[in-house]
Amino acid sequence: MSPATAYAVTGLALFALALFGFLVRGHLVRRIVALNVMGSGVFLVFLAMAARGEGTTDPVPQALVITGIVVAVATTALALVLLVRLHREVGRLALEPSRQPD
Amino acid sequence: MFRAVDPPEPPFTFTDAALAAAIFAFLLAGTCAMLNLPAQPSPLVHDVAANLRASGLGNPVNAVLLNFRAYDTLLETGVIVVALVGSWMLATDASWTLAPGNFVTRHPVEPPLVVLIKALVPLVAISAFYLLFVGSEEPGGAFPAGTMLSAIGILLILARIAPPPARAGRSIRWTVAAGFMVFALSGSATLLVGREFLDFPPSSAKAVILIIELSLAPSVAMALLLLASGLPVEPGRDTPA
Model ipTM? Predict the structure, then answer.
């Protein structure tokens, strides 16, 4: 297994773990964190794909990852503002009341 | 503000276990796919290397970002502006003109913090300008530079040297929008000389990209600062930490 493959499989594992957390957990902060970890897994797979084989690293996936990081930051900021507003309106940190026992 | 910081999660159900099994199967299939990939990288490496000089930049990643796939980057700057407008929409009418509250505390500012921030700000500013101009040949560019400039803004607000930015300010809105507008206008200007949208002519590509980068950096900095600053503190509802 080459280093690039090891990074790609690590990225896949990060994505799979975070996908499970994103779907199962009710706490919205956890979901937002899980979304970010999923994104990091995708970025890791992209960068590993760019670095596979001999010779120079492919700059196109690297540029796409830079774009993706900025979009992920913007998404996270908007999600957190939505969460603050939700908490102010209904006093909950989960979408379904059953997911947040008090 | 959030008293129940970590509410207990409900117990795992049979559905959750089935979901875990499905995701594990996906992980195994993906691993098999990764292990069976062809060893040679994509042919795009050679396309970028062959056209690097025509892009006006020496750094292949920034050549992709700002020339070959400039459309992605243009839309990315649009995403930042739209995310900021979306976060502004969530402020109530009563708090609309108030300053955002994320970096505002009731505690007095510690003097060592002010000393540290006054020492850090010039260093971070120099690093940001260095990154902005080195981006044509080495890793750098408008986005890392803008991120560092927004960090300066956060440090100055934390030390109460600068007030938190008020969203109603017209100059702040122009600063946020300028990067996207200059980028879109430069891309449209290539239509006037008979080229495709955002297809910069090699002779002037470097100058156009420099103008775009110079206008993007303050826009990215201001937009990230405002996104990080969050919602205003509601009068009479929340108290700052």
Answer: 0.89
- Helices within chain B (DSSP H only): 14-35, 44-55, 60-63, 70-89, 111-134, 142-158, 170-192, 205-229
Which of A56, A70, A85 to mutate to test binding with chain B, by most B CBs within 10 Å of its CB?
A: A70
3-class secondary structure for A29-48? HHHHHHHHHHHHHHHHHHHH
How far is it, in rounded angstroms, from Cα B133 to Cα B69? 20
Q: Are the beta carbons of B19 and A20 closer than 8 angstroms?
A: yes
**Domains of chain A by start residue, with CATH:** 3-96 (1.10.287.3510)
Which pTM does this prediction carry? 0.88
Three-state DSSP state, B100: strand
CA angle B190, B80, B169 (to 5 degrees): 100
End-to-end alpha carbon distance in chain B:
7
Contact B8 A59 (CB under 8 A): no
- The answer to whether B128 contacts chain A (CB < 8 Å) is no
Nearest to B190 by CA among B93, B71, B73, B13: B71
Summarised one tens digit per residue, pLDDT across range B177-224 is 999 999 999 999 999 988 888 888 888 888 999 999 999 999 999 999
Query: What CA–CA distances, in Å, run from B43 to A57, A68, B20, B46, B57?
Result: 11, 22, 37, 6, 20
* Nearest partner of B31 among A6, A24, A65, A32, judged by Cα: A6
- Cα(B181)–Cα(B212) distance, rounded to whole angstroms? 9
Residues B41 and A52 sit within 8 Å (Cβ to Cβ): yes
